[in-house]
Specification:
With about 100 residues, the protein is mainly alpha-helical. It has four helices and two strands; from the N terminus they run H-E-E-H-H-H.
């Protein structure tokens, strides 16, 4: 799964333009202690929730691939498969030595 810089920039831009309701509330204890969520914490919480809510893949592409696989029309050249396998073996070998 690869997410392009344009997709990341678009998500960040959309996040910045949508006013989000704060999900962090002030917690007050009987002892007088309390926790106030910072703006950065609130912003991070909203960002995490928006990322989790939206899939990190393109649903239309996945649906197309599923259709092609089911119809027997999906083909990956064997050279590409061998190249990927050898690349992983080389990486594993160099990482272990």
């Amino acid at each position: 799964m690869i997410i392009s810089r344009a997709e990341i920039a678009s998500a960040i831009s959309a996040y910045k333009t949508v006013k989000r309701k704060s999900t962090v509330t002030t917690v007050v204890f009987d002892t007088g202690d309390r926790y106030d969520g910072s703006d950065a914490g609130i912003s991070l919480t909203g960002f995490v929730q928006s990322v989790v809510a939206d899939p990190l893949y393109r649903a239309d592409l996945v649906a197309d691939l599923q259709r092609r696989i089911a119809d027997g029309r999906y083909f990956v050249p064997s050279e590409d498969i061998v190249e990927k396998m050898l690349g992983r073996l080389i990486l594993d070998y160099t990482a272990s030595n």
